[in-house]
Amino acid sequence: MFVGHYSAALAAKAAEPRAPLWALVAGCQLIDIGWSGLVMAGVEKMKIDPNLPGSPLDLYFMPYTHSLPGSLVWAVGAALLSRLVLRLPWRAAAIIGLVVFSHWILDLLVHRPDLELWFGGPKVGLGLWNYPLPEMALELGLVAVAGGAWIAKRKDLGMVAWPAVLFLAFLTAIQMISSMGAMGEDVVKDGAMALAVYLVATGVAWAVDRGRA
Ligand SMILES: [Zn+2]
């Protein structure tokens, strides 16, 4: 799952506008941000297998980011940092933690069984990745529904809709680019590219959020 993760950030922004959009956008991919760094460092491991149906990623070792307990630690850590460092209200901080954990739930739908239930435990994943078209429809559908809720909330708050529409267009564009640009054998390069996309999305979200009414 790639762009579909952003649906959690947008739904959360509609539910709790006090949470900064950049923190939600970074939060929904925080587990993959950590994963990119750990893959580049050689701590977590993957390989590219072009023979796999749909996504070519063989994610055979990623306990620190994508196991159930690992992702819970990232989520609780993000909620505490949001409260203590960003000084957000508890509700907003808790929602950021939930958005971080949503990453694991959404990955569970699409990944082949590569998500450990506990360290060294059985691996789960429902494997929607094996069916690229329904998988893509799910991701874009989630973003459309959550984006609609976010735009409606902005209207309620007297904010203009167009920055939100631009952000949705941006998300659609990065989905298109990522599905065209196949990942290569060089996992360090793949990790760096993924990380760059997550950070650019966070920066764009920060810019969109600045234009408050
Ligand atoms: Zn992930």
Key terms:
binds zinc ion, 9 helices, two-stranded antiparallel ribbon, 65% helix, globular
Structural account:
With 213 residues, the chain is mostly helical. The protein has one domain. It contains 9 helices and 4 strands, in the order αααββαααββααα. The protein has helices at residues 6-15, 21-28, 30-40, 63-66, 68-84, 90-110, 132-156, 162-180, 187-210; strands at residues 45-48, 57-61, 115-116, 123-124. A two-stranded antiparallel ribbon has the order 1-2. A hairpin with a 6-residue loop joins β3 (115-116) and β4 (123-124). It is globular and about 50 Å long. The model has no long low-confidence stretch (mean pLDDT 94). It binds zinc ion.
What order do the helices and strands come in, and which of them pair?
Layout: H1 6-15, H2 21-28, H3 30-40, E1 45-48, E2 57-61, H4 63-66, H5 68-84, H6 90-110, E3 115-116, E4 123-124, H7 132-156, H8 162-180, H9 187-210
Antiparallel strand pairs: 1-2, 3-4
The structure holds zinc ion.
The site of zinc ion has 5 residues, from helix 3 and helix 6.
Q: In brief, what are we looking at here?
A:
The protein is mostly helical and 213 residues long.
Strand-and-helix sequence, N→C? HHHEEHHHEEHHH
Global structural class: mainly alpha
Gap from first CA to last CA: 33 Å
Integer tally of domains: 1
- The helix count comes to 9
Task: Tell me roughly what share of residues is in helical segments.
Answer: 55-70%
Beta content comes to 5-15%
Poorly predicted regions are: none
What is the mean predicted local confidence, pLDDT? 94
Shape: globular
Strand order of the largest sheet: 1-2
- Ligands: zinc ion
Structural Rg: 17 Å
